[in-house]
Write a structure and sequence with these properties.
389 residues, alpha/beta, four-stranded antiparallel β-sheet, 15% strand, binds pyridoxal-5'-phosphate
């Protein structure tokens, strides 16, 4: 068929703003230009050795070759619950308060199908991880954007959501440590979210994918640490960033058992769970000693220090992140986010992400990822120095 008639949910997806950057990137690559890619949130460090070994052994066991259970292996859910207890002091019942996911993206994308009827509203951070909006759109819902502003420490101002919106709102997405701004949130904000969700009957989905990428010992908290959180919400977690396992596709959601059961019901009708050998490797990861993740954090912290001191030296507006491997950089006044991204790519061979690609409020910023070695960051800074001089 030459021109299949597309469903509205596909046609209504926002334009892929990164496509223009991709095009220019490919052109530069074909010319043999030495690109420094700070555009992607994908760790360049390898998965720890013992996780790989465990996968190898588990892959040889025929019992792992069959369909896995929908909710995930009990042993994996137990390991996730135990990890949450150790890391956050949050007790979880592995049989009803942990759900295995094919990466947290999968759970985030499917959650709106469980809670939104057509026309219902999801409250979504702007700028934000694009899957919150895409999942909402696919479920026939509408997104109401919550601007994240620097003057509010990139936290949404919940008091400003109009009453008419709140009447139709069913779902609230939040994400701290935050992609793309790298902001973190504390107990006061999370307690406010619980009160807000109770008052307006919202399901809270907190995306905690970056909780283990933190600096200077400032460990981010879990939403579930605050009183009442488990009554109103769930938290998504991922092994992707914590253990350099983005390609393995494993994550989990924890929290309210009824919310998880509803998400599980959607999933059991659409997917058949995570390959058990990968779940066994996940157990290995969750039981790793802190010293291994400490090493990973040390690498990112050194890179953060390099990039931040370089960017500040160039007079750019940037707050040093205390978590995530992203740096959210204010663009010089004469540029838009997109123009500055293109300028860096075209004139300095540096790939970044325009903040406007994450939502309207991302205008005026670019995102740089610390997913290249330190010497490449130094090289990026000196190229920018020549360009902006
Ligand atoms: C904020 C945020 N949440 C969730 C994800 C999804 O991660 P995964 O599906 O690998 O668990 C990402 C990936 O980049 C992300 O940035």
């Amino acid at each position: 068929m030459a021109n299949p008639k597309l469903a509205d949910r596909i046609r209504n997806l926002p334009p892929y703003l990164f496509a223009a950057v991709d095009q220019l990137k490919q052109k530069a690559q074909s010319k043999g230009i030495d690109l420094i890619n700070l555009g992607i949130g994908d760790p360049d460090l390898p998965t720890p050795e013992s996780i790989i070994r465990r996968l190898q052994r588990a892959a040889e066991n025929p019992a792992n070759h069959q369909y896995p259970s929908y909710d995930g292996m009990f042993a994996f859910r137990q390991a996730a619950a135990e990890w949450y207890r150790r890391r956050f002091g949050v007790p979880l019942d592995p049989s009803s308060e942990v759900l295995t996911l094919i990466g947290s993206k999968e759970g985030i994308g499917h959650a709106p199908l469980a809670f939104l009827n057509p026309g219902d509203v999801a409250l979504i951070p702007d700028p934000g991880y694009p899957v919150y909006h895409a999942g909402t759109l696919f479920a026939g819902g509408r997104s109401h954007w919550l601007p994240l502003k620097r003057e509010n420490h990139f936290l949404p101002d919940l008091d400003r959501v109009p009453k008419s919106i709140l009447k139709r709102a069913r779902l609230l997405f939040i994400n701290y440590p935050n992609n793309p701004t790298s902001a973190t949130a504390g107990p006061e904000f999370f307690a406010k979210v619980v009160r807000f969700a109770r008052r307006h009957g919202l399901v809270v989905c907190h995306d905690n994918a970056y909780s283990e990428i933190y600096f200077d010992g400032a460990r981010p908290m879990s939403f579930l640490e605050v009183d009442g959180a488990k009554e109103v919400g769930i938290e998504f977690h991922s092994l992707s960033k914590t253990f350099n396992m983005t390609g393995w596709r494993i994550g989990f959601a924890v929290g309210n058992s009824r919310i998880l059961a509803a998400l599980g019901k959607v999933k059991s009708n659409l997917d058949s769970g995570v390959f058990q050998a990968v779940q066994e490797a996940g157990i290995e990861a969750l039981n790793l000693k802190d010293s291994i993740t400490d090493e990973i954090r040390k690498v990112y912290q050194e890179r953060r220090d390099t990039l931040i001191s370089g960017l500040l030296g160039l007079g750019l507006k940037v707050d040093p992140p205390s978590a995530t491997f992203y740096v959210w950089v204010g663009v010089p006044k004469r540029f838009t986010a997109m123009k500055f991204t293109m300028h860096l790519l075209d004139r300095a061979g540096i790939v970044t992400t325009p903040g406007s690609g994450f939502g309207k409020s991302g205008q005026g910023y670019i995102r740089m990822a610390l997913t290249v070695p330190n010497d490449r960051l130094m090289e990026a800074v000196s190229r920018m120095e020549r360009l902006l001089a």
